[in-house]
Amino acid sequence: MASNIEIERQIAAREYKAGFITNIQSDTLPPGLNEDVVRFISNKKGEPEWLTEWRLKAYREWLEMESPDWAHIKYPDIDYQAVSYYSAPKSMADKPKSLDEVDPELLETYNKLGIPLHEQMALAGVAVDAVFDSVSVATTFREKLKEAGVIFMPISEAVHEYPELIQKYMGTVVPVKDNYFAALNSAVFSDGSFVYIPKGVRCPMELSTYFRINEAKTGQFERTLIVADEGSHVSYLEGCTAPMRDENQLHAAVVELIALDGANIKYSTVQNWYPGDENGKGGIYNFVTKRAVAHTNAKVSWTQVETGSAVTWKYPSCVLKGDNSVGEFYSVALTNNYQQADTGTKMIHMGKNTRSTIISKGISAGKSQNAYRGLVRMNPTAEGARNYTQCDSLLLGDKCGAHTFPYIESKHPSAVVEHEATTSTVSDDQLFLCQQRGIDTEKAVSMIVNGFCKEVFKELPMEFAVEAGKLLEVSLEGSVG
Amino acid sequence: MIEIKDLHATVEDKEILKGLSLNIGPGEVHAIMGPNGAGKSTLGNVLAGREAYEVTGGSATLDGTDLLDLDPEERAHAGLFLAFQYPVEIPGVSNLEFLKASVDAVRKAQGKPDLDSVQFLKLAREKCKAVNLDVSFLKRGVNEGFSGGEKKRNELMQMMLLEPKLCILDETDSGLDIDALQVVAEGVNAMRDENRSFIVVTHYQRLLDYIVPDYVHVLANGRIVKSGGKELALELEEKGYGWLEKEEQESGAE
User: Fold this and answer.
1) Residue A171 falls within a domain, yes or no?
2) CA torsion sign, A348 to A194 to A286 to A270?
3) Contact call for B91 and A428, based on CB within 8 A
């Protein structure tokens, strides 16, 4: 019997194609969190004194804070002393100077994931920073980008090479004590990407960071900072995967975007962390704080496709500080089996004539719970501001849940806020029509779900829109019939 | 071609088909008429394999293949096509994408080579013209916001693309004005050939003026109670169905 169950489990889990483990030797800090651990991480990265102090301050703040309990998610209390806060492949200890010096096992890992790090094999027009557990393995096309004046490098290196930019901007959008997970991240963040686009420059390539958790019992705490100077343009994409493990692993990231006057930042996420098995065992706890500040005439657009993680807690937001600034949030969140997602956005309108658009598509299957949570706030200064929100939920089956928690605060009489919401299912009639035309149910469901998400997918860079469609198909396997 | 023997079927535990038998040869057009609630639509749904319909007895074969053993999509692959009375909308999925998926799946199952996107688009545009639909309908969501007539023509276009062996038209005339009816009938007539058979389910004789059947059957109380040539339709138009039901009750009492 036991072996049958095991086979079934493997079949059900087989569909998560990124679930393999890379066998390498790692330097992994023993589990536990205290000031010494914070100092150890800071020391490991050779950080300046101010940053060590910044981390320690965050750690002390975190100790005083409590884990938020308002989200529509349930999970056992996380034992923060059971998590390891730093893990890096041993081969990375000497900081390889070129790809030739990087452990072939690591390069192979990214090949398997479809992200070749050799520039000649890489996807044309996309530069990649590859983060493996707590360190960046490689960043492609750095030289080419440098010619355009674009800085794209691991944040741990930027701390040394561009300390003035880091010190000026880090923690200004998401303050250290913004929330429990942001404070934790500020104390123990290990790596992530830093991007700076100079004035008036249109970044010549797509930038992307690929996050991979590999080591067992570790958390990943990355930090991304993107500064787009006046009148510049950048499109950035992040992807993430992890091996299949029976225990839950923690991921708590912070992303800060700064769009100065007239700048344009497009930030896309394809989140495919291991979601746990069909019985809800294992999977990543994904607690992420993402926020942008848009100055005068600037535009920030968040697009996310969230298919992975056992628990997702994530609200990419825009502070529309400058007049005429624009914020957008396009989201597809899919939950299957026992996954839980509580995700949405905050649009804080401060400037005059600021505009925001929110398009959220939630798909729930299996026994999952999927919540949209959003805040639209029109401040007293937000004269003539407008928001349009559309929240659509699609239910597959009758054991899952879809929830919508929209909050609207309008403090200016000229502000206009529109909210539309729908809930639908894939009907038997629709499925039967497809079947009668020769299309099997799995293909039919994936076609219908993709159709439901079309408005969001069209916001993704083209190569990734196709990937996202396929990802939905894989994530839904076994959810019908 | 298709042989239906003593078919019994229930919906939500209520028996709708009560021993229906029907043989249709290649190239024949059979009209099924009958009063409301006789089981006309049930017949099409049962043959196409809709889940809510449970077959409790009898058999149905298409060219010797046991239809009742197949999943609905496999029946489509075997060449069965059901044109729906109320075609459902699938928002967000473009008609073209849907048609391509459908034709790809059926051709694959039938061992025919794939059509590439360019070939397919050309073919789809051709069929659009044939049913008098603007090609812009290919870009719209499946049946999304289509009028009743446009939906029926869209069904007909799908039928033309799939080239089925057996076409079942389920009250295709309902909700159509006379012009649309003519377009649909012309389309069907153009598809008639010696290998393709049709079951035309209808309430009214009117459709049969345009699609002239080889045989007319009256379905009442879950069975075929009378069969005849095309003139039977005219007789029904004149007399209604009451006399047949009465006849059937009397014969049952003997």
Assistant:
1) yes
2) positive
3) no
